[in-house]
Amino acid sequence: MARRSLPLLRHLLARSTPRRIQTRSVTYMHRPGDGTPRAVTLIPGDGIGPLVTGAVEQVMAAMQAPVFFEKFEVHGNMKAMPQKVMDSIRRNKVCLKGGLVTPMGGGVSSLNVQLRKELDLYASLVNCINLPGLRTRHDNVDIVVIRENTEGEYSGLEHEVIPGVVESLKVITKFCSERIANYAFEYAYLNNRKKVTAVHKANIMKLADGLFLESCREVAKKYTGIKYNEIIVDNCCMQLVSKPEQFDVMVTPNLYGNLIANTAAGIAGGTGVMPGGNVGAEHAVFEQGASAGNVGNDKILEQKTANPVALLMSSAMMLRHLQFPAFADRLETAVEQVILEGKYRTKDLGGTSTTQEIVDAVIDALD
């Protein structure tokens, strides 16, 4: 049974069985002042971004969650992230964002990559998990993909050597490889995960991916209670679509992580339901976990049928990051209940509901 479904199961059991003994989770003893509302930078973004971030705003208001948003209009075709937005994120330490379009070619760099590099958000985390009630080809999928976010093929070091010949550099450093490995093993340790798998192509890129593997192996020695193994990225893709339940935590260089996370998301129910975030030593940015489809298309936007589940679940991750665990549990449980009942689902999940209908159903399901 998937780990994150336990709050929902407790909720359903409480409703369906006689209650002889009142059950309550272990009390969270907060520090004085922990209930003070926290400011969060909000970037609605492009396409369906304003729809799904608007869904989060409605649910947060209904929960009376101790957060308030500083909202900024940002679009992917801008040359740089506005300074006032960066100042807000640095001040608040936490950001929630919708998708930002990355123009193809033309010399315009990705604002998503700019944001990760400028804030040193070196770890991307995507949780790909079966949600109760959502039928998929594979059961018992609960994969966490942890991706190095600042170097590799995303270094942006490209130039034209001569007309018709372009050189693009992949940069791998021991420093960045060690810190992403440390983050992956620390995550596994703190979340009672049993295995970390390093994804690589060291059989071909012997120096670059070899350095990544060497770093992972060194870190693995410090965590003797966690199983460590390695897999070549092409074999990994085949194993993912045939037997995904074998994977637990996966740690990857930058490009491989993007591909693996989107593949795993598709296996576990689609990109519309997978939460994720990016974190560094001082800042965190939460967004839809898998990048595929995060800005939608004109038809979805016109019909207002974008799936808000992924960003709602990412918001629960954000609440937990802000040390509001009870609010995070309430939100996750409400979303899982709506999925389990199956009455309200957007088209990507086989239904006909609008974004607003999903929002209303989640609000009604809140304890």
From TrEMBL:
GO terms for cellular component: mitochondrion. Residues 39-362 form the Isopropylmalate dehydrogenase-like domain. It is found in: Mitochondrion. Keywords: Magnesium, Manganese, Metal-binding, Mitochondrion, NAD, Oxidoreductase, Transit peptide, Tricarboxylic acid cycle. GO terms for molecular function: isocitrate dehydrogenase (NAD+) activity; metal ion binding. One of its GO terms (biological process) is isocitrate metabolic process. The keyword Disulfide bond does not apply. The keyword Amino-acid biosynthesis does not apply. Belongs to the isocitrate and isopropylmalate dehydrogenases family. Performs an essential role in the oxidative function of the citric acid cycle. This is Isopropylmalate dehydrogenase-like domain-containing protein. It comes from Cajanus cajan. The lineage of its organism: Eukaryota, Viridiplantae, Streptophyta, Embryophyta, Tracheophyta.
